[in-house]
Amino acid sequence: MSKAPKKPDEMTGLNRADCCAECRDGFCVISMNEFCHHPYKASHPTATPEIVARVIEARKIIKHQAIERE
C-alpha cells in the first residue's frame, strides 16, 4: 500500500465536500487567490502551472482519504 501523502498544514480540513479550513470568502488556499480551485467544487480554466500542481496535490489528499475509509 502506498504511503499517505503528507498533508501540508495549509490544506487542513480539505475533503471531497469541504474546502481547506483556511479558505474564506475571497481567498482560496489552493489557488492562493480569490478563485476557488477545490478539485470537486470548481473548474480550472485559467489555472497556472503552480495552481495545477496544487490542485493535483489536493486531489491526492482527497483520494487517499477515500482509500482510508475503505
Give a written overview of the molecule.
The protein is mainly alpha-helical and 70 residues long. The protein has one domain (9-69). The chain is built from one helix and no strands. It has one helix spanning 49-69. The longest helix is centred in the C-terminal third of the chain and has 21 residues, at 49-69. The model has no long low-confidence stretch (mean pLDDT 86).
Q: What's the structural blueprint in terms of helices and strands?
A:
Blueprint: H1 49-69
From the structure above, extract its key features.
70 residues; mainly alpha; 1 helix
Short description:
The protein has 70 residues and is mainly α. Helices cover 30% and strands 0% of the residues.
**Between the first and last Cα atoms, what is the distance in angstroms?**
13 Å
**What is the 3D form?**
globular
The Rg value, from CA coordinates, equals 12 Å
Calculate the mean pLDDT score and round it: 86
